[in-house]
Amino acid sequence: MVAEPAMAQRLARAKRKIKAARIPYRVPDGHELPDRLRPVLAVVYLVYNAGLTSPAEPSLCLEAIRLARILATLMPDEPEVAGLLALLLLTESRRASRLRPDGSLVLLGEQDRSRWDRSLIDEGQAIVRLCLRRNQRAV
Q1: 82 burial level (CB within 10 Å; 0-12, 13-18, 19+)
Q2: Which pLDDT score, from 0 to 100, does residue 48 have?
Q3: In the predicted model, what is the mean pLDDT of the chain?
Q4: CA spacing 20 to 30 A to 48: which of 23, 69, 92, 120?
Q5: CA proximity to 139, closest of 76, 87, 91
Q6: Distance (Å, rounded) from C-alpha 126 to C-alpha 103?
Q7: Mean pLDDT of 21-37
Q8: Cα 50 to chain center, whole Å?
């Protein structure tokens, strides 16, 4: 984690290097996607966790879930994508009960389950059940 100005400077430098090297932007071909999937999933997970550990940034969590949903649409038969989406949804379902007013964590056993988002739980569980029906693990 770095300060926003530092990250902005890094991104600007990276853009200049890409432009100077004349690296074209292109969507990877289908055969290239499997090799790129793990790093993409890792980044989506890190984005989610950045939002989870910073209560002031819940939009990062929502963005990670949005990206995971897009990946699940693009790769509906990929169990790791389904597993990540299910994990994010099930974790997000507990957001309202995870923190005390002072910002400290509430242990799972102490959380008020009536505050959990049932629709996210249902969606996450449905994804896991679909993977199980396909005889695939939700990784």
Answers
A1: buried
A2: 95
A3: 89
A4: 23
A5: 87
A6: 31
A7: 84
A8: 10
- Which one-letter amino acid corresponds to residue 93? S
- Residue 67 CA to residue 119 CA, distance in Å, equals 19
* Cβ atoms 61, 44 nearer than 8 A: no
Tell me which residue of 74, 91, 89 sits closest to 40, measured CA to CA.
Answer: 74
Say if CB 60 and CB 47 are below 8 A apart.
Answer: yes
Report DSSP letters for 27-53, one per residue: PPPGGGHHHHHHHHHHHHHHHHHHHHH
Report whether pLDDT(136) > 60: no
Amino acid letter at 55?
P
What does the pLDDT look like over 91-119, one tens digit per residue? 999 999 998 888 889 999 999 999 999 99
